[in-house]
Amino acid sequence: MPGLAFLLRAEDESPRRRDPRRTGTTWRIRVGTFAATAAMVSAGIVLGAGPAVAAPAPIKLTSASCPSEIVQGQAGGCVTELQNLLNAHGAALVVDGQFGASTLYAVREYQAATAIAVDGRVGPATKSKLYATGGSAPAPINLQSSSCPANVVQGDKGGCVSELQRLLRHHGYAVVVDGDFGAGTASAVRSFQSSRGLTADGQVGTNTKRALYDTDESPSTSLDLRSASCPQNIVEGQSGGCVATLQALLNGKGQSVDVDGSFGPATLAAVKAFQSASGLTADGQVGPNTKTALYSNIGGGGGNGAPAPINLTSASCPNEIVQGQRSGCVTELQSLLNHHGADLAVDGDFGALTDSAVKDFQAEKGLSVDGHVGPATKAALYGAVTPPSSPPPGGGYGKILDVAEAEVGTVEGSARANSYGASVGLSLSTSNYAWCATFVSWVAKQTGASSYRNSYVSGWVKQARAGNYHLSVTSSPQPGDIVAFDWDGGSDFTGGNEHIGIVRTVSGASFTTVEGNTSNPNGGSDGVYVKSRTTNSSYDVVFIRVR
């Protein structure tokens, strides 16, 4: 499944921003946040691509010429029309008439934002919603480019406003992407500014632009809350893709929360309000009944829920799981494939896309590529999600460094690295998002030193400063402590240019660390490596004690 990904990596192994462009052609690539793509895509820039080919003429999705469901892998005028409609809602896709990975991501983002079952399949409900909320907007222009004014303000129109509105939608604000900076957009800007501690003047200047592009580790909203990829009960304090999906679904039910993947007080209040309105016990815990209510009355495939997952190695699953089956065994299979970087709807239905993902996984693992999920494939699926070489949980803070050092040399995008995401509910390949805080969360989970898990560096700093989860700030770092870096300085950890690791040794102002999502000292892919750092640099550091 060839794909092209551009993303803004919030973290870097040095105090400067990494090139925000990344390309990929393997099946594991998942398109990153829209925020990093807009300027290049709207300008028609595609790294490594050949000459542009004109897209087929658009065909109305509801016409007899288009299939009942438009899905990944299809091409033609119906896909051209779909891409145009998605762009009218801020997707910033290259309109080529090819339903690839980026279009799939855009469909799922749109479905999540509009409370349609997030399955990536454009059926009657998604088509109807696209036209009902349709419109056209000027092509988005990167706010930080010279084409946009220093301050984008109410009354402005054009591509810069389209980009602003698209970014606001990405942060969870229900604004229409029409390129017109009206009162609704101004209100959303002020709300966003307040949430980031900025002056709420409604003017989109340097600081607000930077905050809008602060994607950090933006969680996916393509996870199904009812699948094995999400906890049975989603509760306050959790973070990741399952929480992001929850927030998107809540917004589709009339609530208004930021889709940031962090289950905080605002999300708790929204859950309780939704539960009360739905006649459920308003306990703020998103269990089976609340999940069912969230997915009720939202059209599209998968709206009736996937069968409950069943362990593939149990007697309840056949020796070989093959295309055409529908069961909890398939639900579990799809969830496991997603943990390895696939991008499937978890619906319990073994269709063509699941078959393709199985074959890609088998090819990557050196297995017989037949699409049949037999004993060898099952073992490989479970083997990389919970690697047998993982240090056993337990040991507390004293084992933090031991566990972290055992991972040195793990390469980004490997099954081992990708398994770290399970600690925070992410089912993404580490090749496609900033994962240093996910690595720290995984270490904490392995040792049991702290119950805190978060894929955002800012979250770790916030909780340490508040003295929560057995975390505190220390000025006397020791091996096994956590260290957070603010490359922009100021120690506010709001600029989207942060990093985090584990302290390994300390010598005066100098120290070494074990870090995930950092460059290989010997060249090659990023991964988990030892780095030399110092407190006498232009960046700021905060040392976090776990006790």
Describe this structure in words.
The termini are far apart. Helices cover 32% and strands 8% of the residues. The protein is globular and about 70 Å long. It has 547 residues and is of the alpha+beta class. Helix 11 crosses helix 13 (375-385). It has a six-stranded antiparallel β-sheet with strand order 1-6-2-3-4-5.
Gross geometry: globular
What structural category arises from helix and sheet content? Answer: alpha+beta
What share of residues is helical? Answer: 25-40%
The largest pleated sheet is described as: 6 strands, antiparallel
Widest beta sheet: strand line-up: 1-6-2-3-4-5
Number of helices: 17
Poorly predicted segments: 1-52, 215-222, 298-304, 384-392
| Secondary-structure element string | HHHHHHHHHHHHHHHHHEEEEEE
DSSP, total strands: 6
Distance between termini? 46 Å
Average pLDDT works out at 76
Return Rg in Å: 23 Å
Query: What portion of the residues fall into strands of 2 or more residues?
Result: 5-15%
